[in-house]
Amino acid sequence: MEKNRAPRVYTRTGDRGETFLLGGTRIGKDSLRVGAYGTVDEAGAALALGRSLARCTWVQEVAARVQKELFVVGAELARPEPPAGGTRVEDAMVGRLEKDIDGGLERIPPWRGFVVSGHIPAEAAFDLARTITRRAERLVVRLSRLEVVRGEVIRYLNRLSDLLYVLARVEAYEHLVQVVMAGVLEKIKEGGTVKEAITLEIARQIAAVAEEKARQIGVPMVIVVADGAGNPVLLERMHGALLASLDIAAGKAFTAVALKMETEKLSVLAAPGGPLYGINTTNGGKIVPFGGGIPLYQENRIVGAIGISGGSVEEDIEVARAGAEKWNQLLCR
């Protein structure tokens, strides 16, 4: 009795340069349709590489779902006629990609200009998957000029390339945060230990004074109190404060710690013609070069910062100074 054997990988049916489409139609391997779904498969492999290298859990989960969806895209393209129903690319799949794109953008600061990839392997892998997806999209568009291809397939590939761009940026940003945090913590170590100065309770007291000042001048603001590594200990958004102020306030607090100066002073240095012009494009766009960020000192050592956003530059500075003054009062106790 013959033992059970695993199915063979090779079939020898494609030795003459032809293959079968789903449904049994035989077609040349150099056909546009085969090139289209083959390139989708290639994009999926590059996506798998990015997923295997990614450290962000959210990125891993999104990539895993998209890998499965690409099987649906490839299967639809491997049919000689668009499927009338059943398993096929749906508008809901495109909608999920758009939701993921928006969710990813909320995780990173805004960027300007072109991005040079390759800071970490996962970022490079996702950018590779993006360019392959763009090529797949171009092939599918060409195919649609000659044969019937449902619009959902083209829209899916178009949105996917955008999502892959965002996944690459999220991975790079998450890596940057870890590197910066480790570097700052190393600098503020004393005797091999890090002294925690800005506790949550202290951050609440600082924020309460800043909020009261914001109420006095009648401007809803976002208040961020960060630790000595520039990481938010407390983030408070007053009712009516701008959503954009969430990232800006956190950026101001980070900048005050990272550059050891009030962001009001940085705004002069970073102006066109200044010695630090363009610094806002570094550090993944986290540097915010205008007033409202103030470092908090303890014995000539930066142990935290306050970042304020929501009003004019002058109003942000006023509220930040009120919070910083509260910290100074706490030190004198």
Automatic annotation (TrEMBL):
> Which stretches make up the Cobalamin adenosyltransferase-like domain?
9-170
Q: Mind listing the UniProt keywords for this protein, alphabetically?
A: ATP-binding, Cobalamin biosynthesis, Nucleotide-binding, Transferase
Write down the superkingdom of origin: Bacteria
Q: Does the keyword Transferase apply?
A: yes
**Alphabetical list of InterPro entries matching this protein:** CblAdoTrfase-like (IPR016030), CblAdoTrfase-like_sf (IPR036451), PduO-typ (IPR029499), PduO/GlcC-like (IPR005624), PduO/GlcC-like_sf (IPR038084)
Catalytic activity from the UniProt record: 2 cob(II)yrinate a,c diamide + reduced [electron-transfer flavoprotein] + 2 ATP = 2 adenosylcob(III)yrinate a,c-diamide + 2 triphosphate + oxidized [electron-transfer flavoprotein] + 3 H(+); 2 cob(II)alamin + reduced [electron-transfer flavoprotein] + 2 ATP = 2 adenosylcob(III)alamin + 2 triphosphate + oxidized [electron-transfer flavoprotein] + 3 H(+)
- What's one GO BP annotation on this UniProt entry? cobalamin biosynthetic process
Pfam families xrefs: Cob_adeno_trans (PF01923), HbpS-like (PF03928)
EC number, UniProt record: 2.5.1.17
The keyword Acetylation is annotated on this UniProt entry: no
- Family matches, as NCBIfam families: PduO_Nterm (TIGR00636)
Q: What is this protein called?
A: Corrinoid adenosyltransferase
Q: The organism's lineage?
A: Bacteria, Bacillati, Bacillota, Clostridia, Eubacteriales
